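Support request, please re-run this one:
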Amino acid sequence: MPVAALTLKEDFSWSIEVAIWLTAIVTTAVVLWPW
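Re-run finished. Output below.
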């Protein structure tokens, strides 16, 4: 059970990190996009 909980926690943290990166990339693209 602790192993499953640890894996779930790692997956959740990884998902949050990816979401932050994607948000930063999209925001940068929108700001720097040559309209």
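The chain is about 90% helix and 0% strand. Residues 1-34 form one domain.
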